[in-house]
Specification:
Elements: H1 4-45, H2 47-50, H3 60-84, H4 87-113, H5 115-131, H6 138-150, H7 165-170, H8 185-189, H9 191-194, H10 203-250
Helix pairs in contact: 1-3, 1-10, 3-4, 4-10
Amino acid sequence: MSPPSRRLQTKPVITCLKTFLISYSLIFWFTGVILLAVGVWGKVSLESYVSLASDTSTNAPYVLIGTGAIIVIFGLFGCFATCRGSPWMLKLYAMFLILVFLAELVAGISGFVFRHEIKAELKDAYWKAEKNYNTTDSRSQAVDSIQRTLKCCGVHNYTSWAETEYFKQNGIPPSCCMPLADCSPENLRDLRLAGTVVYKQGCFSLVTTMLEANLGIIAGISFGIAFFQLIGVFLACCLSRYITNNQYEMV
């Protein structure tokens, strides 16, 4: 058995580590709530932009929502493990933090490395969506939503529509029309007249700017959360070690 003085020196350290780890776990729980909010926001705000690159709706927002929910659960688990002072629970918590850190790091690096390929794929997908535009399918509705929201028209500009089958039959889509403009069918079928009533700015450059700005915010939050988890790993491992050593000293 260790001298009482040594055990008395260890207990304040354990108490201090518990306080820090509980505070960390609460903050970690809050980051999970933030990811949940970002996922919901991405689903509502960015669905039109990202859905162009796939035949169905993108799963990216659901990934963020699921990750946020898991972090919320393990944040509460971390608080419980710290209050219980269980070494194996603390080690499990540290292992989870390491796994989430690695997953977020790999995802962030992959997005950065392949950003140009993603941009090229998005441009090709946008062009196909415009070429096959029919006002009814999900991609056509996404094109309409983008043109209304960003106040743009066509891939490069409004003349891009001249190469589509839809233009030959109906003219430029009404979603290109400027507010209060006289967008009659006759005006929309004539490129010269359409230039006076529709937006002239092309959509692709605006879409990529919008995505890069929003994805930059998401990437910054994700990287911040990822490196923040290393603090939790350090605190959980230290606390587990001190508790285990304290138990051995009492024997």
